[in-house]
Each structure stands twice: as C-alpha cells, then as structure tokens.
Sequence to fold (270 residues):
Amino acid sequence: MNTTSARAATFHGLHDHRSRPLVLVNVWDAASARLVEDAGATAIATTSAGVAWSLGRPDGNSLTRAEAMDAVARIAASVSVSVPVTVDIESGYADDADGVARTVDAVLEAGAVGINIEDGRVHPDALADRIGAAWRAAERAGVPLFVNARTDVHLAGLVDPERLLAETLERARRYRGAGADGVFVPGVRDVGTIRALVESIDGPVNVMAGPGSPTVAELAGIGVARISLGSAVAQAAYAVARQATAELLTTGTYDSLAAGVDYADLNALF
Fold:
C-alpha cells in the first residue's frame, strides 16, 4: 500500500469509533495546519472560506482549482505523513461531474485523502453525479478517498421548516447511494434533530459545531461520528488582528497580543 492509500485507510478508520468522534479543527494554511497537528489532532481538515480569505477572495466557489490545490499541497506537505488531510472542495471547482473527477485527481496529487463536496442550491441529482465521478476517479487512482457529502438544506434553509429533516434524509440517502462515505449536515444544533439524523442515515454523520452547539461528549453520546468547526477558527484568528489594530489605534496598548503563540515555539514547527 502506498503512502496516499495508507493515509486514506487511516482516515476511514477514524470514522469508525462512534464513542469517540473524529474532531476536526479546520485550517487554511501551513502554519495553522502545523499548530493543529502539534496540539494533538489525528487528522487535518481545510476550510474553503479560510483558504479563500487568505488568498484575498470571498468564500463561495470563487477560487480556481489550481489556486485551491496549491494551498492544499502546502498544507499536506507541512504535516506528518501519518496525519491524513481532507479538503473542502466546495461544489468541486468544476462545472460538471467530469470536472469534479479532475479535481479529485488534483486532490490526490496534492496529498489529501478526503473531500467535502456540497450541494448548496444545485439540484441533488447534480451532486449525486459529482459524487459518483469523484468515487470513480479515486477508484482509478487506487486510493480509498473519503467522500463526505455536505447538504445545505438546514444551513441555507432550502425548504420549508417542517420539511427540513425529511429533505435532508432524502438527500443523504441519494448521496450515499451515489458513493458518499459520510454525510455532513451543517446548520443543525438541536440534539433531537441530530439524533434523528444519526439514527436514520446509513453512514457516518458529520455536524459543524461552535458556540451554542452541544459539547463533543453530548454529540458522541448520540452517535455523531465527526465534528468540525468550519471557518470559525479562521474567523477567531482574524478577530485578533482586528482587535489588536483597534487597540493600537485607540488606547495605544497591546493587551490583545498577550495570548499569542510564542515566536520560538511557532518557528520550531517548521
């Protein structure tokens, strides 16, 4: 088994421990990836928003495939070979399923072994086609890529409130049938709804957590397999930059910088 395949197998295995969910702090560059690894993470996930912002672009499919994969390659190269990397590829950096297959080729070439791919406001049949193309591309490469299908039904309020759960479950069934290994449902914080998702979806369920969400222990207790933070850590980092600037320009003090990572410690990560 080559290194990429071994990383992919490791990443699949991290989803098998329902009593101990896979927790992912989403990164956007090599430094954030190394800090997350150094803190003890068993896997690395990217945030498409954070990557886009770091390149001076808005989130929302504004990056080209090449721009996104350049960032992924730097992130994957910065962490240990034993730490798998999964990539948020938004809707696939492509206009159709064939293009998504080429994106998966680029993901694997960059050293990542998992993807998130989302439906957003496109028809679920379109995402099912893209998932199938991603799966076939990974199969041709001989790598068990972990395909995490994200549905934005709850996050974007794509249907009437009384239909949110049923629509999410129908899309999850369709995406799993197309070859998705797991299902990502951002925008859900209610324990009852999360429990219904876990009980009804045949496969690992990923939720996005943050302030106001159930704790990791609570999510583990209802069977969530994967917990991620999305763009929240990047937002928090940029909040420090804004706060430090405001402090410097107003009071002329430096308290906002007191909790910074030690220079020598950060430099030693590379």
